[in-house]
# Entry
Amino acid sequence: METYDVIIIGAGAAGMMCAIEAGKRGRSVLVLDHAQAAGEKIRISGGGRCNFTNINTNPQNFLTANPGFQISALRRFRPRDFIAMVDRHHIAWHEKTLGQLFCDDSARQIIDMLLEEMAGVGAALRLETAVDR
# Structure
């Protein structure tokens, strides 16, 4: 029987980033998704070019009952941190209106980058896997 420290349901952007961060912290990670491919919403976002972050993201842009959460989260991982990951993977990008950043080529590059980062920390991925309970 296989055991994992962390099991993440969903191989979208958030699930893959969680897997990467948990793996960086030495956790054994499994990501499950019902889809045939990881990152399907990423693939179609931004007209297929993926709006991967916004340089103007700041705590004041969020509505929440817990205003301390976004301050804490955005201190730990900022848009520039994701941009640095994109740059490390040599993905060309450009800024559109209001600080929106898009891939010059294809959203598939972001998916491949996240999968590569997951593999780099030893995170396992199981697709076409339903979670019943």
Q: What stands out?
A: The beta strands are 6-9, 29-32, 51-54, 93-95, 100-103, 124-126. The radius of gyration is 16 Å.
